[in-house]
Please model this.
Amino acid sequence: MSKLYWMYFIHNEWKFYIAATESGLCYVGSPDKSYEEMEVWVKKRFPKYEFVESDEALTSYTNEIKEYLDGLRREFTFPTDLKGTTFQLATWDALRKIPYGEKKSYSQIAELINNPTAIRAVGTAIGANPVLITIPCHRVIGKNGTLTGYRGGLEMKEKLLKLETGEA
Model:
């Protein structure tokens, strides 16, 4: 049976669950959410995996996430193991192309994936992003410049945007 490694990540004021398979990071949770949120999400996408709690197995991921949260890293180099539709994967790939410290609107992301009328679908795909922070869905804002929905909550989104613009 394949293994899925997980841990409760705590760094300064940041606290959330993360999980990875042997192929890469597959889940970064919302701040202060329960283990059950992660468990339900992961079991749905990785049903035949054995859960193994292991901070050590996730060290390469946590080191980079800590560096990012400390303002010392602008992009991530570790692999991800993402399960999603073709449309979701294309949307998440487009999010990775938003430069550090910049923002894009949902309509700009729809254009990036060559589907300019799929703005609502883009929003839904962004909301399903399984690896918060590392696939930077926090960099997507409303067309009028307002902060809009974020699985991690608007407070987390605002903190991440301020971190990237040096306002943190």
Notes: The mean pLDDT is 94. The chain has six helices and six strands. Residues 2-69 form a domain with the Double Stranded RNA Binding Domain fold (CATH 3.30.160).
